[in-house]
Specification:
Elements: H1 2-9, E1 15-17, H2 29-42, E2 45-47, E3 52-53, H3 58-91, E4 104-108, E5 115-119, H4 123-134, H5 140-149, H6 162-169, E6 177-180, E7 186-190, E8 193-197, E9 205-208, H7 217-230, E10 248-250, E11 258-260, E12 270-272, E13 283-284, H8 285-348, H9 354-405, H10 412-419, E14 425-429, E15 445-449
Parallel strand pairs: 1-2, 10-14
Antiparallel strand pairs: 2-3, 4-5, 6-9, 7-8, 11-12, 12-13, 14-15
Helix pairs in contact: 2-3, 4-5, 4-7, 8-9
Length: about 450
Amino acid sequence: MQKLLSDVRQGKWKGVLVVEVERLARGETMDQGIVSKAFKISNTKIITPIKTYDPNDEFDEEYFEFGLFMSRREYKVINRRLQRGRILSVKEGKYVGSIAPFGYDRVKIKGDKGYTLRKNAEANTVKIMFDLYAYDDLSIGEVTRKLNEMGLKPRKNEKWTVSTVGGILENPVYLGKIKWNGRKVVKVYKREKLISTRPRNKNYILVDGLHKPIIDEKTWKIASAKRSLNSAPVAHNNVVQNPLCGLIICAKCGKKMKRRSYSKYSKEPTLYCDNPKCDNISSKFCYVEDKVLYGLKKWLEHYKFDYQEYLDKINHNKIESIEKTITSLEQEAKKENDKLLSIFNFLEDGTYTKEMFKTRSEAVLQNLVRINNSIQNYKTKLSQEKIVDIKKKVLVPKIENVLDVYNLLKTAEEKNNLLKIMLARSYISKNRKSNKKRFRSNKFYNKFIS
């Protein structure tokens, strides 16, 4: 549909054949307006087996818009019936998801509509996971490492991750329940852009399923109580908590490093790599933040020296050389144009035959095209050099502003936006754990990319 609309806007087709006009748009009012406007401006006809619609005809346009409106109503009715059918199936204990959770297979119910779940070989891994967490007093991170050491693999990846294990431990499907609408898709505006979010819904549906549970109720209650004790005390509501969000990259595996906060307020946040196969050691967040600002300060000092040298020598000579080359080429082009004019004069006064004119004019034209192409290339180089010069002039005060203002900002989001003005990414690597006597935790390798 997007490709069709693009073609219609470009006026590629005189008309579009469609079974019925209602098939063109069943989206929201805005979608209907986009479709209607594209056909009207490009004057593209809508051809159906019953009638051909002209979008610029007043009566056809009115009928077309009415057809789109009715198709939207039909879509809503169909969608409402589907959602009602899903909810009824859920309340009957059927599984309505398209992909079965880890530990189960999705199977058709014999003699009835719908699907349920059947335990498979993966169920043993789920049982081990809950036992380790509930009875062996291990954290989710320790359970993840234990599973990887035991060689138990997830369904798709090679290694377990903390987020995947945590998701399984809080999924009531393993207790024999069916949960629905736990995280509904909600559209919100953020920074004037419409985005889809999946916030946790308190009014979800939870019923007994038709499938057999993998764990017993006692294990579930112990695991649930442990999760509630270790949960974060404050919900962040999508507010940026990490001033270095998206900027710190693990130098060993290339993944973006994450900030980990602790429920114990006495313990400082750390920055870590969540790749289970990576051996990069975490660092205190404050140390990494200080290192980034220190690196920017040193880079600025070095850059100012290089920039002054650039202004004094390289840039001035380079731009001047390109400008002289362009002037020289333009003079050559003028000479070739004069030659071409003379060739036309020789043809008119009979000095050149048609064959001679063709041979000479083709040679001159080829040379003229070559010169004009060279002029264009050098003009592009000149504009690029001037842009680089402007950027270099602007960059120094920008970095100085970052260093001066950073610690005065109140929120992590403001700090993050400020750093992203001139810092693309920073690579962090740490090979040794902290030791109070021999090794301080603020020593690690870092590399900046602006």
